[in-house]
Design a protein that fits this description.
By secondary structure, the protein is mainly α. It has helices at 3-16, 20-29, 37-57, 60-83. Helix 1 runs parallel beside helix 4 and helix 2 (20-29) runs parallel beside helix 4. 13% of the residues are buried.
């Protein structure tokens, strides 16, 4: 495996799991006071475009890592709406 692919996989993995600590904190505390839904909407859009780009380039690293990010982002949105104070 080439170094460029290893770097790409590492960067993609890091980006994909970057939302995991926020999701864990949200589920543990059951509070979503500090979570910005507009930021998540922008991130959701960007990640979706990355997936589209990955499909157009036929690049599984981009597709898979951003699909994971999209799922984590969606979970944060769902739990944020669930735990948001009324």
């Amino acid at each position: 495996m080439e170094l460029v692919n290893i770097i790409g996989i590492g960067a993609s993995a890091g980006t994909a799991v970057s939302l995991l600590p926020q999701l864990i904190k949200l589920c543990r505390e059951k509070k979503a006071d500090g979570i910005s839904l507009p930021m998540l909407a922008i991130l959701f859009t960007g990640v979706s475009l990355w997936i589209w780009y990955g499909v157009m380039k036929n690049d599984l690293i981009i597709i898979i890592s951003n699909a994971i990010s999209l799922c984590l982002n969606a979970a944060i949105v769902v739990f944020s709406l669930k735990y948001r104070k009324e």
